[in-house]
Structure formats: C-alpha cells, structure tokens
Amino acid sequence: MAEDTYLLAFESSCDETSVAVIKNGTEICSNIVATQIESHQRFGGVVPEVASRHHIEQVTICTQEALDQAGVDYADLAGVAVTYGPGLVGSLLIGVTAAKTIAWAHDLPLIPVNHMAGHIYAARFAGEFTYPQMALLVSGGHTELVYMPEEHVYQIVGETRDDAVGEAYDKIGRVLGVNYPAGKTVDEWAHQGKDSFNFPRAMVQEDNLDFSFSGLKSAFINTVHNADQRGGRLDKNDLAASFQAAVVDILAEKTQRALREYPVKQLILAGGVAANRGLRDRLTSDLARNFPGLKLLLAPLKLCGDNAAMIGAAGYVGYQHGDRADWDLNAVPGLSFERITPVEE
Ligand code: KG4
Ligand code: ZN
User: Fold this and answer.
1) How far apart are CA 287 and CA 3, in angstroms?
2) Residue 66 contacts by C-beta under 8 Å, 6 or more apart in sequence?
3) Taking ligand 2, which is a single-atom ion, which protein residues have CB atoms under 5 Å away?
4) Which one of the ligands is nearest to 164 CA?
5) pLDDT digits over 20-75, tens only?
6) Which candidate, 309, 238, 263, 279, places its Cα nearest to that of 83?
7) Dihedrals φ, ψ of 338, to 5°?
8) The CATH classification of domain 6-120+304-337, taken from the options 3.30.420.40, 3.40.190.10, 3.40.50.1260, 2.40.240.10
9) 305: CA distance to ligand 1 center in Å?
C-alpha cells in the first residue's frame, strides 16, 4: 500500500493566520485559523501593519497546534505548502518565511501555492474534480471566472473591472453601520427584505465575461445619503435585499454565459462570498434548470473564508505536478492566473 502523504500548509495572505495538516490532499487532519478581525474592525478594514504584527505573534503557535491536533511530527511530513500571493506583502512574508524555515530545517520540499488556487481547492473537500471545469471565485479581493481545461491549469476568462464583490459588500455594509467584514450580516438582512430599489446590474447584457460592481456600490451609497439628507430612513432589510439581488443577478448571469462559451462538466463556487446563501441558492436553481447535466460543487461553508486546509489541498496537486520553490521564494502580492481572453476597452 502506498504511504500516506502529509503536507503542512500555511496561509497568511490577509487577516487570518492559518496552519493545517492535510493527508493525501483530501483529508483535513487539522486546520487552525487565528482570525484578527477584532483588531481591524475599529478601522473599518484590514490595516496591513497591524495584520503583519498579528501574523508574527500567531504563526508559531498555530503551527504547533496544527501538528499537535493532527498527531503528526515533522518527520511524518512530505512537504510544506505556502501561499506566496496574491495578498498583502507584509502578511504573505510571514507565512512564506515560516514555511521556508521549517522546510529548510527539516529538509522538506517547499511548495508555492497561489491563494486563488487554494480557494478553488476548498471545494475539493466537497467532492471530486472533473475536467474541464469552471470556477466562480468571489472574495474580498477578487471576483473572477477561472477555466480549468485540466488539472493544474488555471485560466481567467472573466474578472471584475473595479471592485471585488466582497469589497462591495463591506463598503455598503459600512454605510448601513455594519462592522467589517459585512457580507454575512448583509446576507442575513437580505433574506428579511424585498428587492424594491431596483439597483443597476452593470454589464449584464454585454457580450463578455467581465464584472463591474462600483456603479452598484455608488448607486447604493447615493440612495442612502439622499434619504439621510431628506431626514428619511430607508428599510435596511430592503436595501440589503436590493443590493444582494443585483449582485446575485450579475454573478449568475455572467457565470451562465461562461458556461455556454466553455462547455464544462462542473462548476465550482468558492471564496469568502461563496458563503452567501442567496448566491448558493440561485446558482443551484439556475443550473438545475438551464444546465441539468452539469455538476455544481459548492465549497463547504466553513472553508469559504481564508484557511490553510485549502492551501494544503491545492499544494498537494502542485506537489504531484513537481512544483518546488527555492529558498529565495518571495511574496508576490499581485500574483495572478493567466488571462486567456482579451480585456475589451
Ligand atoms: O476569501 P475571503 O475570506 O478573503 C479574501 O481572500 O478576500 O473573503 C472575505 C470576504 C469579505 O469581503 C466578506 O464580507 C465576504 O467575504 N463574505 C460574504 C459572506 N461571508 C463573507 N459576502 C457575502 N455574503 C456572505 N455570507
Ligand atoms: Zn481569500
């Protein structure tokens, strides 16, 4: 019988320090996540300097906890996987340095992982991947449609031209008085309100796979400010429902356009915003109706946000494909998959 492969994985691209032990790419032995949200809330968003400081304090504690909880020693490991981008440079550097140090000290291969590949692989814990497949990646920093013709090949076919969808949730949430990150609360309010404001659905009819959310965000903010100036109060649940209806329409329409252009066997929904109930429900019903043969794989709710288990799963595939980093591996804040369709002006 083949020996089991244990990887130690690190994630520190933004405001979560996370270390995990993953067995054979699909089994979570441990997944420790130390969140810093409280430290950033009073600033209304992530403060890079504060984030780096927290990562430094947390990374060795999380590493020890991940190994202890998994019951695994350094000698059992086959390699160390680490997010090296995209993300905040100071945050990424802590994870990269920790991973390098452990790999060097224990003579283990170092496996570089793209954070966005990690998000996709969160869905690997929900089921097998079959190719070709498409992924809708929605997070605080990114909104992109990624085509995977085969394993380990990631090609962007559409992306946001301005704000990421999670960023838009956080900004409109702030106007409604919701603490950062606002997505979850806005989602909950949306389920108690009606889509009555008819916000714009930018670019939905355009013949491309790109997104835009800044017009929607501005329309929302203007609506609230105008009402404030007139001394009126708008229903927060209806505002949330109207915002979410526009977001979900845009994402669902563009994703189905992508599925018509790129016939695939499976659609993956992943990233922090993949936890959104409205989006999960809408994609489930639209796909059942319009693409009955196509499988929808939703990232498990617990693994939608940033975590190292997803990095270990993506790292395992990189490990099998021979991805190895040297000791000079650096953080790459703007790391991106290749874009295969032209960006129209
Ligand atoms: O992937 P993630 O944890 O971090 C990045 O890599 O950006 O995503 C965080 C984002 C935040 O903007 C947060 O507001 C959003 O995901 N989010 C949600 C929901 N839960 C988290 N947005 C909409 N609905 C949710 N239920
Ligand atoms: Zn992320």
Assistant:
1) 39
2) 8, 19, 20, 21, 30, 31, 32, 308
3) 139, 306
4) 1
5) 999 999 999 999 999 888 877 878 888 898 889 999 999 999 999 999 999 999 99
6) 309
7) -70, 140
8) 3.30.420.40
9) 6
User: Which residue's CA is the closest to the ligand 1 atom numbered 18?
Assistant: 183
Residue type, 106: H
| Joined tokens for residue 329 | 């591996």
Token output for 95: 């994870």
Q: What is the pLDDT of residues 109-120, one digit of tens each?
A: 999 999 999 999
Class of domain 128-298: alpha beta
Q: Boundaries of CATH 3.30.420.40 in the chain?
A: 6-120+304-337, 128-298
Tokens at 150, concatenated: 């085969």
Pocket test for ligand 1, best of 243, 273, 283 (most atoms within 8 A of CB): 273
Beta bridge partner(s), residue 114: 85
